[in-house]
Amino acid sequence: MLSNVLIIGVGLIGGSLGLALKESPLVKKVSGVDNDPESLKKALEIGAIDDSALLEDGVKEADVVFLCTSPGAYASIIERIKPHLKPNAIISDVGSTKLEVMELLGNLPAGVSAIGGHPMAGSETQGINGADRYLFENAVYVLSPDASATNEKLNYLKNLLEATGARIKIMEAKPHDELVATISHIPHLLAAALVNLTGGESNSLMMAAGGFRDTTRIASSNPELWLDILFSNRSCLPEKLDNIMEIINNMKKALENNDRELMRQELSSAKAIRDRIPHIRKGLIPGFSDIVCIVPDRPGIIGKLGLIMDKENINIVDIEILRVREGDGGTIRLGVPTLEDAHRAVAALQQEAIKGWVR
Amino acid sequence: MLSNVLIIGVGLIGGSLGLALKESPLVKKVSGVDNDPESLKKALEIGAIDDSALLEDGVKEADVVFLCTSPGAYASIIERIKPHLKPNAIISDVGSTKLEVMELLGNLPAGVSAIGGHPMAGSETQGINGADRYLFENAVYVLSPDASATNEKLNYLKNLLEATGARIKIMEAKPHDELVATISHIPHLLAAALVNLTGGESNSLMMAAGGFRDTTRIASSNPELWLDILFSNRSCLPEKLDNIMEIINNMKKALENNDRELMRQELSSAKAIRDRIPHIRKGLIPGFSDIVCIVPDRPGIIGKLGLIMDKENINIVDIEILRVREGDGGTIRLGVPTLEDAHRAVAALQQEAIKGWVR
Questions:
Q1: Nearest CA in chain B to A249
Q2: CA B328 from centroid of its chain's CA atoms
């Protein structure tokens, strides 16, 4: 079945979705709706949409509708489009939480199915100018079907979204929201809390080591965007915050009572769990091997690593400055496609007097 | 004045210090002491020390003594060496906190000065095999002199440590320990707490996005090492933990009371402070300009960036995969030496159809 797709809100996410879906063999046409005529013009220009439409007209024609505006606009848009949805249409969204939107999509006309969506991808940029055909590639993309969504429809949407290169996961709204609370919203709040704990004192910030900078990087995100996300997960977050304060309070007691065993349990458990992430994620993204190498903190060293690997025909699929030294440079992790590549890479580095090993 | 330097404990830090100090014009000889004969042998082999000594004999000859064992061994070593220290000797250490060790170094013979030290550098590896002449390069290296240390002695130690390439900062023990609590120990505890909050549930770990992985990376560190560090800062940590729980509790109240303004204050304050770190650190490490570019998530792309920059004679001094997409690749930040380089880099990328901009 060839579909007419309607994207409501052609910003960063909507535009990127359009660019990818235009390449799907299941898509007849991608239409776009936006309050901002400039965004629509740009979306047409870069080929993110085939044509622009007025909201009601677009919906009348659409087999699949994607809500890609800010979540604050969902409620009024849904009310406006409800009467015009095609019987059999699929309506989806791209918001960061799923319980609220699935409630808004509760009373759809018979035959219409709501399948909430959360592509776990973003970008530094905002708006259609940041649109990127590869934005969702390898990203986890969660779909949360409501009770009325048939398997057939769910599979159809899955197949449609394959053009994005994302890894689709099916998950109900409630467990999804609890999961993103734990792995995204609470880390965000704690990063902000950690930064605020410094009081902005210059000495602290100057000495902020790699650990602090890694831990707090996300505190630089757009506050308005995050306010929307956090408040849309108000039903899950307070309990999770209680849970983390309990863990922190345990750590405080361990220190006050000089109870090394209690603290050892917390740290060892955390290490055991954290060490599993790279292995588990290898099931999700193409597997690769890691090497670690120690380089002098000199300009040009990263380009040099690139050249050495290039000469050996080894692809660098990941690179990370481990920042265990406070300057930039120092110990660098390189991801290469296979274990064999890793061993060849270490040998090639050795020939250039760079110490490295397979991790 | 040419010094005899004694390094007690020739592991990762002691060995790296030896390698660097051997190149100082102020050093006559570097001697090493270690319980483990294999470590001493290796240290001699790689040239981290000129000779090995027994503890008391080494101390009798030494003008500058560095305690580089685990902090747990400090007390007994200090008792043993006290009677043998040369009048006028300087004794220093490399531990992560300063109050405890400065107390242990309280009753030194007249003329001997204690100047605690904290090189804020580390490595993935442990022991003398990880020793690295560049380990301290560009790292902040705090010196905490006691009341008896003259300016002359402090300056002498500063000059001696210049060979390491570290950035020396003078700071008293108490403010130092409070500072590392805020920028290192609390972030560490919170990273562990965040990981433990997941309960190790596989689904959570698989979907753990870049933000979570950045925020919790340090939870993979060695628990035994960190137990020592955390418990040596028992006098500062509980109060700081109370402070952070208060901030977290405020955030919880903001959510419960639907008080967006309160949450906005927390997030905006955090962003404003966090955004200052790169600027402040530019005063510490050689300044550079950042560009951000968007690349398809394809193998070889990092090597390709290296080649493009190399062709233009632009040094990559820093690289970071921003991981805003969940797969690896996506948006990449490159640090280059000057703003002019940054503009040339963007132009060069554009010619290869890679979108980039100066940040």
A1: B241
A2: 26
